[in-house]
């Protein structure tokens, strides 16, 4: 009887010991699977520590009119300069202060722009407006000079030029504006009946910038009672004066009718009659 009770008590104690051992193993396995890691915390610390100060690494300058060669001189225009600022990744952000110029630095204007944290580029536009001049001085070389957060000067950029002067002015038509006529030498002091030659010199004044051509005219030495055949006098392009000399030769009459009054009658390129030229003086009978 006592042995049965002892065996039963031993069996019960053994069962309790085996049950307790099985519960301890399950807790250990489950806990290893749920252990939290600090990976997200480590990543946040790494990002914060890699933030760098804001600096301007480079600036590009672009023009909305890269050339003005196809724009007429004298035209009004606006040239827009676009500055693109470049910053390092993971920068802390801040403000960029700078000046800009459109005339190669002879004059400048202050400006600034705000940069957000991590922003890697920003643009700023400025412009020149005015009338194009053939001297090709404006619009001039434009760019920016950064003063903070660091010093940086961009390339200075200007449009290709010069502006288009347009077609050359039309050549003036070939024309004679006036004729001068003089006679010489003096007849005074020469004996009547002696041989004598009187010179008449016509000076044709031609419009400036003409293409050249031929002056066609006749002349007289007896006040128009008779005249020469047509004379053609060539004129080069741009020539502004041309001269022609004609003569009267013969014996000086006592009537003083010769040499007579000289006149030039031009028919081309336009029609003009010169003033009369009278030989000075008269012959004498001594």
UniProtKB/TrEMBL annotation:
Comp. bias (Polar residues): 27-36
Signal peptide region: 1-24
Chain residue ranges for the region called Disordered: 27-49
Domain of life: Bacteria
Low complexity composition-biased segments: 37-49
Alphabetized UniProt keyword annotations: Signal
Keyword field contains Signal: yes
Protein name: Uncharacterized protein
